[in-house]
Amino acid sequence: MVYVVVHHSWEASKEKDAQKFFDTVKGAVKAGKLPSGFKMINAYMGKNDAFCVWDVPSVKALTDFAGQLKPPTKIEVKEVTKFI
Asked: How many structural domains are present in the chain?
């Protein structure tokens, strides 16, 4: 398992699409419908960007899952180490 931070960013004109996407992900998290081994640690939303912290089997597993969801955002994925 690895910790991953995903940075989403979007143009102001895509705000509604981004919000719909995040509502879908939030619904999947709450309903326990994420792929096996996936756990969302936290999510933070700002103006035209968001950061999501995940505990997942691998970076590739997360990017494959994100590709299936077709986010309306630009995404940057970074593997990180939990230190606190």
From this structure: 1
